[in-house]
Amino acid sequence: MKRKNFFYGGVMALMMACSMSACSESDNPKPDAGGKDDPTNLDYKAENAVAWGNYMYNVGLLLNQDALVLYKYWTEDYDGKGPYATIFKDQTGGAYSSALACVQEMVEGGMWNIANEVGDAKIKDPWEKYTSGDKDGGLYAVESWYSWHSRDDYTNNIFSIRNTYYGRIDDNDVNKVDGNLNAFASYADFDDAGDIAEKSLSTLVASVNPELDKKIKTLIFESAKAIQAIPQPFRNNIDSKESVAAMDKCVELAGALKNELLPFVTNELSNSKYDAQLDAVAEQFVDAVVLPTYKDLKEKNTALLESVNKFRTHPSDEAFEAACSAWIKAREPWEKSEAFLIGPVANKGLDPNMDSWPLDQAGIVQVLESQNWNDMQWSGNFSEEDKAIGAAQSVRGYHTLEYLLFKDGQPRKTVSTK
To answer: Imelysin-like domain spans which residues (predicted)?
Structure first.
């Protein structure tokens, strides 16, 4: 989720959307409620079919390129300083002074950051707008509302915290018991005994303060469980008691990470006797979590590009469905990487390149009509304050492709072109 230009891009999109249409105020609001020419209600049709396929392909191409570049930064070279994996694990290149600094980054720059964002922004921002009377603003503030995939996105964000803390990946998290986390009474029921790596941060914390370790693991599980308990889709249940419970639980998790785990790491683990263990935690995190996640991201974005290219060359309802499925699969490793939006992904602008939200819907329509792919490109050093960069990022990435693929939570149809 793009942090830079959040309000700048959001105001543009929201003004366009809400000036042309009013979102439903019923108990089951529908996203695409605008008029014929409203960007929020744009349809794939004969007149724009070729342009639509071209846009999908070019967005997929950029996503694939960004995923490849990100993996190369971590595994091959980052600005002539060697692989970022080595920079992090061995504290070379001047980025980190010690293994303790690396673990502090894992907690505050990663785990706390995304827990706070899910609770205090991704859920709370739509809730505050909606319950204050700005129902249009609340509806359009929901990330991933085109696909109705918000709930799983947020859950995978929490699992990214879990993977960072446990020092390993469980690829079946959301799929366990068909995603019904309510079937599990506690984190111990949900997690197999082997899920926590020997050289993980969890294991190290447990060896010194088992109660704190149990609290963090419990809050991670309860946050994911609370999010999954929100009636689907989140966009239609913004003000539900389940949404409030999920928001509160994620904020509680963020508080524990910032106010308990971080001070514990900083104060209790700063003793030199923990240096070797901290080194092992940093290495385990990179080798067993970061690199496999980014490798998965690279591979699934390659598959996504292939899928949208097949649609471009042979459009059909089945091709739309296949591309939507590929989008969901490529989205998962991205959302599971958000507990470590550190280093290249942040410094090089790859996060907002791939995951800008909200979108400039009017800008997307302009690109669709002009077919000027340069509007999605930017050059030079990345700056969060550069509005030209922000404008380019707001018409590319996962959510632009989501806009082109989904409508009302379902794959779009080509029937209107016949």
So the answer is: 40-249, 291-409
